[in-house]
Amino acid sequence: MDPVEFRVRPVPAGWILEASASLAPLAFRAGGAAERKADALAQAMTSAGVDAKVIVLDRAGQVAGVRWYWAAEPDLALA
Known about the structure:
The protein is an alpha+beta fold.
């Protein structure tokens, strides 16, 4: 399964969090709040067994950071 990508980018009124999954975009006044939500959603995806990536763009539209979240490998000994 492809990783879910969360992208935080600036807009005139604040910041938008978009996802490659079928999630509605979320709007935030502060970039930090958008990043925290993206991180929380990415961590939740790993709990569901899906890898996730958070990409943060700065106000110039350049990549300011990328964070990967890896799903835990299933314990095959318990299968």
